[in-house]
Design brief:
alpha+beta, 8 helices, 40% helix, globular, binds zinc ion
């Protein structure tokens, strides 16, 4: 079941490894088949180098396992909140990549210092509020998802294809698992560049609105003209 999606999700998980976003088994990518309402996600605790498509776990949108012998990633409930809340999302990626996680730990949104950032995010990379003790003691992973959703109230999942979960790390998403992983990679690069920017000049200012809008909207606006078009 969902063989193609399994292969896509496995490939997206391996992309995080290739791009050095993963320490041991940290991180996870999932993808969804919207027609069937089925989610494919990385299994919990299986080393990436041993992972095969059949190890991936298929669940419904309530987290019930539909197929797979292994336990799904413990972050599954966070992914499910995002899929349930945002129908436009087809893939979710979570990492503890170092620079993005450093910003998450500092609980600082990442300012848009340049066009790499502006090509993907229409505004700073947001950071969630700290989770309340009751949220941690309760359905922790689900409540992490709700914190991400609250964080996106001022924006949209397409204008912010990822956020930083306070004291934890980045979650990113996209139209499918591959794009979610791509956004996780970009988010790490943005976080790294912003860190260096402030190292060179602690008083560095965000890019101006005109440049930020130009770069974001030429790729994502209704009059987008960057690239070859996706039809
Ligand atoms: Zn995590």
């Amino acid at each position: 079941m969902q063989q193609r999606l399994r292969e896509q999700v496995l490939e997206a998980n391996l992309e995080l490894v290739r791009r050095n976003l993963v320490l041991y088994t940290f991180g996870n990518v999932s993808g969804i088949a919207r027609d069937e309402g089925l989610v494919v996600i990385k299994p919990s605790g299986v080393p990436y180098e041993q992972m095969k498509p059949e190890h991936l776990v298929v669940t419904d949108l309530d987290g019930n396992i539909v197929e797979g012998k292994l336990r799904p990633s413990s972050d599954l409930p966070t992914h499910l909140v995002l899929y349930n809340q945002f129908p436009e999302i087809g893939g979710v990626a979570h990492t503890h990549s170092e620079y993005a996680t450093a910003w998450a730990q500092a609980r600082q949104p990442i300012p848009c210092f340049g066009t790499t950032h502006a090509d993907y995010f229409h505004g700073p990379v947001p950071v969630t509020a700290e989770l309340a003790e009751a949220d941690i003691a309760g359905d922790y992973e689900k409540n992490t998802g709700h914190a991400v959703v609250r964080c996106l109230r001022q924006t949209t999942p397409s204008a912010a294809p990822g956020v930083l979960v306070a004291n934890h790390g980045p979650f990113a998403w996209g139209k499918d698992a591959a794009e979610a992983a791509h956004h996780a990679v970009i988010l790490e690069a943005i976080a790294r560049m912003a860190y260096f920017t402030l190292g060179i000049n602690a008083a560095a200012q965000p890019a101006g609105r005109a440049l930020h809008d130009k770069h974001y909207l030429r790729k994502h606006g209704k009059n987008a003209y960057y690239g070859q078009g996706s039809g």
